[in-house]
Amino acid sequence: MVVLAYDAPRAAGSGAAAHASGSSSGCLRSDDSPLYYLDPSLAPSALATPADAPHVQPHARERVSYYFPKGVGEYHYGERHPMKPARLTLTNRLVLGYGLHQRMSCYTPRVATREELEWFHDSDYVEFLSQVTPTTPLSSSFTRFNFADDCPVFDGMYDFCRSYAGASLAGARKLTAGQTDIAINWSGGLHHAKKNEASGFCYVNDIVLAIMELLRYHPRVLYIDIDIHHGDGVQEAFYNSNRVLTVSFHKFGNDFFPCTGALSEIGTSLGKHFSLNVPLQDGIDDGSYVSLFKAVIEPCITSFRPESIVLQCGADSLGLDRLGCFNLSIAAHGECVRFVKSFGLPLLVLGGGGYTIRNVARCWAYETAVLTSCTVPDNLPETPYSDFFAPSHRLHEALQAGRVENQNTKASLEKIRVQCLEQLRYLHGAPSVQMQEIPPDLTGWLEEDRQARDSERAEEKAS
């Protein structure tokens, strides 16, 4: 388990010294942020248990399912494109190197079918997606469906989309069947894709498809997004619905992509007040981010009472990300994951952005350890890709070398917190749901049950 000594005074000397000397033990942070520890035994005794932990030890270990589509890390957007699916291969190798696969059920899921993609996406968009190749002559369809520099056509693009979408759907189905407590798909989380267009490196919105699958069985689903970019595609899909509460923590302003996610975007019609945005400025640090995250998410869960949670863990909110401008450490990013996990609700964990691939792999491997309640050493395991992590070969790098000035004041963050809590007051408790359609799986089961009863009655009459 990851232990957080939060909002506590800095331990004198030992943590900073250990970090500076390159030791793999001790305090992971030596700046003004809260202190995060890999091993509870390394923390000061008074701070050894997180304040929000209801129990010292869980009664039973969570069942974790891990999805890694075959070959998903071998696709290539283009030489100069910042999205590198190879980061998924690096992540998977670290997960295996740490032995975390021994604490999970691991799956190579089937790809999503065209019919499944069309649950959300328009059929003509899916048709174009399935047919276009890098040699297809330019036409009006490229403009219509927003295929350009950000969303290029590359070899195997349709298969890539079906792979990561299929993994998210498989995880959602495992959760609704009650066969797992946590499902992980680091290849998913592509939150910008719209109903009929590509956007922000995203072609198929696997998150929306997974939430739609969860909604077949769960009355309410909470979506949480900690990518540095606003989760606009997911918000837009459920903007009129009171069955999905979307919560996005993101950079906002100065024309930062996708230029949405203001506090004023709260939903419409039945979905009014069911879209919650937390707009942040450059340079937010560990203490401010984690404190605000917990202050917003806990009342969201207690007010909305979701039956499952989808957590998008975009790693571009880390410090030193190629496209990011926050100052978060891997430990703080992982603390948000641990906090969501602590509520014990069915949880689907997805990837997302992240463009400094060595740090993306570090982050998601660490969060896999958090989700499996494992303590892993700071020294990275040997893998065929160890050169990517040179020269330190450590899990927790100092990501503040190019620190961005923190433009988030305490007053501005408090204002955001108060406005978020004020909006949650309008929920008036969890909305009720009238189930108008029996899920197909349940329909078949009920029919079999009816036929069995009829057969028994017929036998009784005959006797």
From TrEMBL:
It is an enzyme of class 3 (hydrolase). Residues 447-463 have a biased composition (Basic and acidic residues). Its main location: nucleus. Its EC number is 3.5.1.98. It comes from the Eukaryota. SUPFAM superfamilies: Arginase/deacetylase. A divalent metal cation binds at D227, H229, D316. GO terms for cellular component: Rpd3L-Expanded complex; Set3 complex. Substrate binds at D150, G200, Y355. It is found in: Nucleus. Residues 438-463 are annotated as: Disordered. The keyword Zinc does not apply. Signal peptide: none annotated. GO terms for molecular function: histone deacetylase activity, hydrolytic mechanism; metal ion binding. Residues 81-370 form the Histone deacetylase domain. One of its GO terms (biological process) is epigenetic regulation of gene expression. The active site is at H192 (proton acceptor). Keywords: Chromatin regulator, Hydrolase, Metal-binding, Nucleus, Transcription, Transcription regulation. PANTHER family: HISTONE DEACETYLASE 3 (PTHR10625:SF36), HISTONE DEACETYLASE HDAC1-RELATED (PTHR10625). Belongs to the histone deacetylase family. HD Type 1 subfamily. This is Histone deacetylase. It comes from Tilletiopsis washingtonensis.
